[in-house]
Amino acid sequence: MWSLRNKVLLGVLLVITVIVICGVTLVYKKDAEMIQKDYCQNLYYRVEQAGKYFDNTMSSIYEISAKMAYEKELIQLVQKYKEQQTEESAARLSQLLADYKTKNMEISSICVYLRELDVLITSEEYPVRVERPMVALRDSTFHNPTLMGIPYKKEGHMLSFVNTLNTGEVEPSVVMVNVQERSVYYNYLDYLDSSKVTTLMLVDQEEKVISAKERSLIGTSFSQPIFHESTGQGIVKGENGEEIGLSYRAPFSQYVIRLVVSTDEILVQLRSLRFFVLTLSIVFIAAAFLFSYFSTLFIYKPLSQLTETVKSVGQGDLNLRYKVTTKDEVGTLGTNFNNMLDQINVLFKQLIREEELKKDAELDALQYQIRPHFMYNTLNTIKCYALTKGEKEVAELIANFADLLRTAINKNGVFITLQEELDIVDKYVKLQQFRHGDVFAVFYQVEDAKECFIPRLILQPFVENSIEHGFDMGKTDNEIVICASVEDGILNIKISDNGIGMPQELIDKLLNDPAKKVTGMSNIGISNVKERLSLYFGDHCQVNMMMVNKKLEVSISMPAITDAKQLCEFGRREGESICIKR
Amino acid sequence: MIVTCMCMVWLLVGCTAKDNISIKNTEFTIGVVTKAKDSEYWMSYISGLNNAARDFDVNVILISPQTEKEADVQRQMITDLLNKDIDAIAISPIDSRDISYIDIAQEKGIPIYATDSAYFDVDIPYIGYDNHKMGEDLAEITAQYLKGNGSVGIISGSLTQAGHRERVEGFCGYLDEHSSIRTAFVIDGYSNLMLPETEIKELLDNNPDLGMIFVTNAVAALGLADYLEEQESSIKICAMDAQQDAYEAVKNGRIMALANHSGYENGYQTIRRITEIVRDHKELEETMLQAEILTKENIYNYDLQGEP
């Protein structure tokens, strides 16, 4: 059986475990979300700042390129070169371009492309002039910075702001103010890169890669599923939750910075805390359990003691009391339990007293049936008259009858000796022999047990039964034998007759039927004898009747009491608890 | 009991669903082309633009020529800007007569607004100060100072710009109506430029009875004030534009009256109104900003913060 303490401990352990698991899980998830959110918002702010700085640079460079398109000096030098096509004119033009280049540090080069001549003049020291450069111009080239290969180098890309020189020609020359792609990457994108970033690119409106860490990606199409539903700028989470995408579209250049971070990398530090958190949780649960263990021990001890006391009381030890040590509910239970036991003791005493009174009343009632004082006194008078008339035999009979009455009337002493009881039986027998003649005889074998105390008038009813119901009065050899002996402190009395016997049903009826007799000397029946003996001796006496070898045998056993003082053991004792043994 | 606990755990853990997108900025973009960026007025204008862009959560693309003399460059910039993905454009035209790009704007459905200076003879909404009223207010002070008599000179920015023209018209109109003061000269082309000393000297020599010179921008006024102070001239100056050095000049009497034409306020209101009308579809009355006239008497009571 699980004790209350174990149930409480289990409940506490379960609650603590559930709470810890819930708490740790919730906190972990919330922390992860907050870390992700904070990281992404910070990163987005950085991306936004990078985009804004990039856009400011682009617009500044654009302004320079737009101004140059109307710059008279530039236009004049271009015209001059067209006319002269000399190294000197090219050098002067190149120098002017170099001067303009210093207006913004981000400008990597400035070129003038003379379409008519298919010649490019640069701001570089070398080459100053490039013939048949690979310059592809479209309409869109003139409105937004355009990614193109560096015309005078085999490798490398540049963002070029192309403006038509305001010369009024049919096929006017163009001025190209250029920013190196690598410069864009390292000035605006590189500082966004980290171990958590899986993708970082600058793309144009057509999702073509303008700048990236890997040069091989420049000019290719950008494709990341995470951005498929994203229309412009913001933070989006991947469907599988493993990636977060950030994009910022610069308003002037309309280029978009696309950045993808891995959520695993963001949460690396948090995940490294898992083991620590797990350990801490286990330690906390164990500590909570230990605390609960000892605190319940402290709380449960009085309850345990009370339980043991109740068990002992339940097994019969009504003398036990619970020692109240606390002032809580258990203390209240214990105090009231003790009070309950005290009340039970009082009730038991009352019950025993009532039983004793009942017993006395029953005895009184039984004895009262056989004490007719008037008859005794009258008989005594008649005896004296018979003696005066010389009728000794009659006087003896009357004397015997009067003795019987005296025995019946005498209230002094419930117990008499066996010898005295046999005297009563003998007087009764003589009266019966007078009535019936000498058709029966009674033999006594009670030498050692004569002095034993027995309740009065317990043998007479059996002898009467044998005489009245057991004998065939037509015979003359009817016998009753009364034997008594003491063995192991038990007085055993046997009354047997050689009469006609008795069927078992009648035996059972005699032993158990409480109905009063209507014949015989008294109203004390055999069942009364049994009841009286039971009242006095409880389970320590027995009354049996049985047919043994065609003889009816009555056996009575009771404690052998030879000392009158021993009679108190089976009566009331004042001032002590009564122990009833089952 | 255990089932109940598990259900509670599941509910608690489950209540942490997140949206897919956590930040999505607005993409309403306003293109702004100013006349220049090189004066304190325009710097404060740009400051107002940027703050309004932040407050109203819009993108602003700002480009401008280097000086107010580059009308061609400005036109090219406007054309290029109209080819970008913008939702509205605000222009402070160097040449208020040039409307060559309006067709492009109409074709692309991009609403045009004039800022700081309006257009001539075309119905393009204007956001900015009442330049005519500023001229009138300064003329009133001039008339009071000269007691209705005397002569004044006017040094203006380019009269191809509606703003400067309206200021001059307001100034002259008031004087003509309310006084006998004569306008001795009107020279233009000095938008945020200082006059050469020789030219100033020539003007003063040719007009010895000048009592007041009205300058339509603070840069030119401060240059003139420096010259007049050196010459210990009694000619007074009234000017326009809100900038710290002009406030100082009013405090120490080098400029008699200054129309507090705030670039910051102009820039801020430009973005605010365009956003409310175009993006938020509010119906707003077309009201112009009103400039305080600052003098030595009231400049100490005035919150010279002007811009945050």
TrEMBL record, chain A:
Domain HAMP: 297-349
Annotated SUPFAM superfamilies: ATPase domain of HSP90 chaperone/DNA topoisomerase II/histidine kinase, HAMP domain-like
GO MF entries: kinase activity
PROSITE patterns: HAMP
Subcellular location: Membrane
Transmembrane segments: 6-28, 275-300
Pfam families per UniProt: HAMP (PF00672), HATPase_c (PF02518), His_kinase (PF06580)
Record's keyword annotation contains Transmembrane helix: yes
Keywords (A to Z) from UniProt: Kinase, Membrane, Phosphoprotein, Transferase, Transmembrane, Transmembrane helix
Name assigned to this protein: Sensor histidine kinase
Taxonomy, superkingdom: Bacteria
Signal peptide: none
InterPro entries from the UniProt entry: Bact_2-comp_sensor_kinase, HAMP_dom, HATPase_C_sf, HATPase_dom, Sig_transdc_His_kin_internal
Transmembrane recorded as keyword: yes
Automatic annotation (TrEMBL), chain B:
SUPFAM superfamilies referenced in this protein's UniProt entry, alphabetically: Periplasmic binding protein-like I
Subcellular location: Cell envelope
InterPro entries, sorted: Bact_Solute-Bind_Prot2 (IPR050555), Peripla_BP_I (IPR028082), SBP_2_dom (IPR025997)
Residue span, Periplasmic binding protein domain: 30-276
Protein family membership: Belongs to the bacterial solute-binding protein 2 family.
Protein name listed in UniProt: Substrate-binding domain-containing protein
